[in-house]
Predict the 3D structure of the following.
Amino acid sequence: MILLQSQSRFLLQTLLNRVQNLEKAVELDYHWVEFNDVRYHILVSTKNPNVLLLSVSLPTPPPEAVFMGGLPVGAIEAIKAAYGVVVHILDPPRDGFNLTLKLNLAKLPPDEEHRYALLVKIASVREVVLGAPLRVVLKHLASRTVVPDVDRVLALVHRPKESFFLVSQPDKVTVVFPMRFKDSIDTAFATSFLQEFVEARRAAGLNNAPPCLWSPTPPRELNEAPAEALSANAGFVSFVIFPRHVEGKKLDRTVWNLSTFHAYVSYHVKCSEGFMHTRMRRRVESLIQALDRAKPGGEEKKKSPNSRSFKRLDLYGIVMVLEFCFNIHASKTSACQLCNLLSLDCSHIGAFSKDTNLAFKLVLKNCISNFKEGFMFLNLDGLEGRTATFDMHNAYDKAFAWETDLSANKVAIDLVLARIKKWKDVFSVAMAAAGVLEDSLPIPE
């Protein structure tokens, strides 16, 4: 399982790059959004490169959550305590944001280690602001007291228009999360995940972890909470925090983990859903392979001479056809090659040696019949278009001195065009000869 980091990685990297390159005085204007609809904006001008404006927009609070001046209770005090003189709060903030901080980079500590620690704290402004009221309650828990002048059930915002609840007592604080998900599949995964999450608390080695409970209905601690805030389709998760869980450095970790618990669950729900999809795809692939192996092998059909299909000729085949049609002294070998190219039955050539004229007329008739269908695939316009394309590339080659070798292509295209021009004349003669043969000479079918 993974726990999210409190600092914004993009914000921290931007601050580090800015501090390391102050002398360049580069203007910055960055907008970005992180999970739970927390938006950031960084603005740096070239007129004052040591000043950086950081604006933060928080999730829209629900009606039951208490905000003061657009910020959670105690946020201003938490910012001043965390950042000191380095950060100044602008009032009012920039339009569209809940908070705008003015960072004076010239006042950063000179020591590299302390400077880096402060930049990490600035990059964790989300934790400082949203976790401020929770931090106040847990600090009083560490001293075994209750925050004065605060309702027994306190609603804190953690997602847009959603809140979780704190029920404070001197010796413990109960934190209750109504778990809501928009997608029904996510709801099913989350319900199963949370039930297993509660069971994992009982494992050995987790005796000191906060007790965790899951319930499909609101716990009785929330009897005083407004009814509209208790709608949850994945149940309610409750953590009981004791003073030992917030002692010393444990306080910051507890505040962050509780503030981002819903995001933590959502992350693992999506991971589980992706894992299930992968397993399902692999299973389907294995079943398809099993079905393919179960198919009986089909017998190859033997083609008869009458069922042979027309085979498109290539350039070499057409040259052979033309040469054979006008070469009376062609050998029987070339006749068989011609018949193979034309998908003819070579048994007709058996009489070639006895009756050359009959064999020639038979081959010529079939040759012309196929030639009528196959000749136009050469597409003279297409070849001329290729030549024009080559000329364009050749012009670019000469203009920009590109290292291309198109000479071989040019020669090949010129040869093909020359042969096509010759074939056009031969084709007209062949068609005329075919007409004479078909009209005057009987050729057996």
Notes: Residues 9-130 form a domain with the Yope Regulator; Chain: A, fold (CATH 3.30.1460.20). The mean pLDDT is 78. Residues 409 and 415 are 10 Å apart (CA to CA). The radius of gyration is 42 Å.
